[in-house]
Amino acid sequence: MRTMMGLMWMGSVLLASPARADLIPPQQVKAEARMAQNPTLYDRSDQYCLNKRVGAACRIDAHPVLGGGPGRCERFIDRNTWTIDLQCQIDDLVLPEGPENAPFYPPHDFCSNGKVPPAFESYMACPPQRTIPADRFCQGRQIGQACTLEYRDSKGKPGSVAWQCQRIQEFDDFYFAGWHQAQRTVIVCRPPGSAPVRQWTERSLLKKLLN
């Protein structure tokens, strides 16, 4: 199960062109069609949008850097289950600054002759990862030492918070002739403990019909 922090850190790369339309998962096409046919339909919701409608106000009780704050219930397609999920999308999403020039590492079989496909060269490298980079807040510090994370929200408002340097794994899901997952190990200024986890509740067929 993915954490809120994981959701913030993970990106999804979907490469497609008129000549490579087969790179779009057919399940995604089907799910998008369902969404377009009914603008209020969803299959399950997280605990922050339970029994709420699309567009309703919601709130995640956590620090903004962890994905907390007020937001709106919006629909997204989960690429693991291909369900339409109603989840709390924070209004002022904060993306923590990570290490500079720290590539992600895809599975070994994604590389050919020690190289990733050209489309991924800007942010990926072939495994194994030989060094563990640190963000600028943990440069020269040990794991567990105090640090001060500086950040800006989506409106440009600055903020800072005192935390600890931690060694974590970050993940990036991407689609290229099938789904793959790249990862990297980094040292970053983050709060102790884990971020909030989304818990999903299936919506009953009756509620879908009465939607």
From TrEMBL:
Keywords: Signal
Signal peptide: 1-21
Name listed for the protein in its UniProt record: Uncharacterized protein
Annotated source species: Chitinilyticum piscinae
Taxonomic lineage from the root: Bacteria, Pseudomonadati, Pseudomonadota, Betaproteobacteria, Neisseriales
